[in-house]
Design a protein that fits this description.
Helix content: 25-40%
Radius of gyration: 25 Å
Strand content: 5-15%
Number of helices: 4
Structural class: alpha+beta
CATH topology of one domain: Ubiquitin-like (UB roll)
CATH architecture of one domain: Roll
Number of strands: 4
Distance between the termini: 67 Å
């Protein structure tokens, strides 16, 4: 079945007219094939308008609209400023707010102080440097080989006696040059 994929946001710059036509048997297959049109090695978090939940991936739609999700942490001057302003308002009007909500004045002041502190920390935090086109190839959290298998990867059935190696699972492995001639 021919599925039309409409790309929006920065994704539409990767394909002519922002549209892709793929032959797919369900929505999951269409989205997997859409990855062939995007830069290799880059991970894109997207929302598909026509698919409200994960169970919808098995449906057979004619059109899928793919929207990129813009996410990140820290560095937002606007969000941090709003959070600080809201905290100041809570502290300033804590008596009236506490009486109106049936809370203690100390609880409202504490909430306001936490908002102020959180907003200040958000202003001080740097934004992550991930390029959506080239991809962020270096993991900042896990060193070593990958420890997961992509969904849909075939699992071999082995008959007879064969030398078989498992999928690599690693944690906290650092690679370095080793030269035995330099050891004393």
């Amino acid at each position: 079945m021919l599925v039309k994929l409409i790309l929006t946001g920065y994704l539409k710059d990767f394909v002519p007219k922002g549209e892709i036509f793929v032959d797919a048997f369900n929505a999951r297959d269409a989205l997997m094939k859409a990855g062939n049109y995007l830069p290799k090695g880059a991970t894109h978090q997207v929302k598909v308008v026509e698919l409200p939940c994960v169970d919808s991936l098995q449906e057979n739609p004619d059109v899928l609209t793919i929207q990129p999700l813009y996410q990140g942490s820290g560095g937002s001057k606007k969000a941090g400023g709003i959070q600080i302003a809201l905290g100041i308002l809570l502290v300033a009007f804590s008596g009236g707010i506490a009486a109106g909500l049936g809370l203690t004045k100390g609880a409202v002041i504490l909430t306001g102080a936490q908002l102020i502190l959180g907003g200040a920390l958000q202003l001080l935090q740097k934004s992550p440097k991930a390029d959506p086109i080239q991809g962020d190839k270096k993991s900042r959290f896990i060193n070593g080989e990958k420890n997961t298998v992509k969904e849909g990867t075939p699992i071999p059935l082995i008959y007879g006696r064969q030398k078989v190696y498992p999928h690599v699972l690693s944690f906290n492995i650092d690679s370095s040059d080793y030269n035995p001639n330099l050891e004393t």
